[in-house]
Amino acid sequence: MIERPGVLEKTGIPDGEDAEFPFSIADFHDLAQILRNDTGISLEQSKMPMVYARLAKRLRIAGLRDFRKYRKFIATSEGADERRHMARALTTNTTSFFREAHHFRHLRQNVLPPLIAAARDGARMRIWSAGCSSGEEPYSIALTLLSMAPDAAQLDIKILATDIDTDILQKARNGIYSNSALAPVNEEFRQARFLPVGFVDGEEHWRIDPQVQGLVAFKTANLIAAWPMKGPFQVIFCRNTVIYFDDQMRRLIWTKMATLLSPGAHLYIGHSERIPAENEAFSPAGVTVYCHQAESSAAEPEMSEVRGGADAGS
Ligand SMILES: C[S@@+](CC[C@H](N)C(=O)[O-])C[C@H]1O[C@@H](n2cnc3c(N)ncnc32)[C@H](O)[C@@H]1O
After folding, report:
1. pLDDT at 14
2. 134 pocket-lining for ligand 1 (C-beta < 6 Å)
3. Which of ligand 1's atoms lies nearest the C-alpha of 94?
4. 164 lines ligand 1 (CB under 6 A)
5. Is the CATH number 1.10.10.10 carried by domain 3-90?
6. What spacing in Å lies between the alpha carbon of 91 and ligand 1's midpoint?
7. CA atoms within 13 Å, Cβ hemisphere of 93
């Protein structure tokens, strides 16, 4: 790539004297590599303007004048916190209640009835929301479950909700949502399961009912590090989280999830994600829904990128 003074070719980012923060292609590749090692997220060079836009604020806060200094700083132990801020700035937490509503219909109609019956006979039911963001996904699962099994708290049922981002998990644990966030929630659930907490920034906010919260355990876990939870799970939601991972990493995640699913368990993935047909551990069971095959013997995959540090448990 040719670089001329003033602007980086094909990136549109001002460079040299024109830029608030000089940002070279080498800086970009170095930061992208750090992000990939830490989170599994792969960034194409076409994302360079997005990286500049999102990290310029971080450089201002850190009081650094260019990206070369920033990348050196986050590689040091003093820069560890800033490194997490970088990952947060470059990740999307977009989510909503009952996102991809067909998944919740599928769960209600096809998956939960036998699991609830088994739980009432003493069986254990474990559901995992992997990449749960601010909690709308696991709470939507809990709302669905409670509407079918008001006795869920008395049964051996738990929803494990994990994310790499500790700040977003705190928001999830707080369980407070604005009127607009609650727009997809039907009136029956809104009235029965949300308590008013007053106005924040001119908008009314609501706290999710403690009974719903009681079904969900939020934990920090990095999908590309060691997974301390043992399973088995009867349901996993892993939607719109591995979408930015590269193909090889995504395949490793699906194969590893298969080892934690009980036979006949269901895996829900994002609308633009697919499990490759050659993965014999899963068969399609609906739109972006897969059923774990009883006879498959998925072996625990080798993840060279796997590192310790997560603290989730099922
Ligand atoms: C777009 S949100 C998806 C939320 C929800 N699953 C949904 O579909 O609405 C993606 C979430 O994945 C989390 N994430 C990204 N990389 C991760 C990783 N390596 N391990 C665990 N969570 C990760 C992000 O912090 C973010 O909250």
Report:
1. 57
2. no
3. 1
4. yes
5. no
6. 8
7. 18
Would you tell me how many other CB atoms lie within 10 Å of the CB of residue 199?
11
Instruction: Give residue for tokens 């719903």.
Output: 212
CATH number of 101-292: 3.40.50.150
**Which DSSP letter does residue 20 get?**
S
Expressed in angstroms and rounded, the spacing between residue 312 Cα and the centre of ligand 1 is 15
| Whether the predicted pLDDT of 261 surpasses 70 | yes
Q: For the chain, what are the domain ranges?
A: 3-90, 101-292
**126, β-bridge pairs:** 158
Selected catalytic residue, list 54, 124, 173, 251: 54
- One-letter amino acid for residue 236 of the chain: I
User: How many Å apart are CA 144 and CA 104, to the nearest integer?
Assistant: 7
Given 15, 27, 30, 163, the catalytic residue = 163
Rounded to 5 degrees, what are φ and ψ at 17?
Answer: -70, -20
Residue 2: its pLDDT value, please?
A: 37
Q: How far is CA 254 from CA 64, 248, 274, 277, 284, in A?
A: 40, 10, 10, 12, 13
As a whole number, mean pLDDT of residues 267-295 equals: 94
